Amino acid sequence: MSFMESIRTCFSKYVTFQGRAQRSEFWYFVLFVFVGQLLLGVVDSVLFGTVTTYEGGFEAQTNTPILSGLFGLVTLLPGISVVVRRLHDTDRSGWWYWMFLIPLIGFIILIVWFASKGTHGPNRFGDDPLGGAGYGGSDDGDYVASSIPRSGDQG
Predict the structure, then answer these.
(1) Which end of the chain is less enclosed by CB atoms within 10 A, N or C?
(2) Per-residue confidence at 138, pLDDT binned at 50, 70, 90?
């Protein structure tokens, strides 16, 4: 799934908590939200904040993050729904998202789950978002077998 396709998918499934989301959909949306918040935070600082310059650098701050705040509100529900769908892809209930409330440990466990492969084929939350073709590692005939013997092969 491409970057733009994943953003479109997340916004088209704005509050869809059923189904599954593949890793690329989730991580591209996380990247989109991170970069968007970063850029809009800079714009907020320039437009609505104060910039203090001093020898060797500057400091920008704002007490009114209007643009980044609106962006955060717009991406909140699609962000929660893609998290729930990503957990579904790993055959876990969306309620596991509450684990982020456990300091540090919960966040680390969620990151590991978000980065892990989804279940191959359909699971209790729906069909495989890759159509059953992508997670495996099975040889689909597109690659030529290597002539280099594997360790343990008898020649």
Answers:
(1) C
(2) very low
Burial group, residue 42, by CB count within 10 angstroms (0-12, 13-18, 19+): middle
Residue 155 CA to residue 153 CA, distance in Å, equals: 6
- Return mean pLDDT, the chain: 84
User: In whole angstroms, what separates CA 153 from the centre of its chain?
Assistant: 40
Are 125 and 20 a contacting pair, CB within 8 Å?
yes
CA distances from 43 to 38, 119, 132 (A): 9, 41, 43
Structure tokens at 90: 């790993």
Do the beta carbons of residue 120 and residue 132 sit within 8 Å?
Answer: yes
Residue 131: phi, psi to the nearest 5? 70, 15
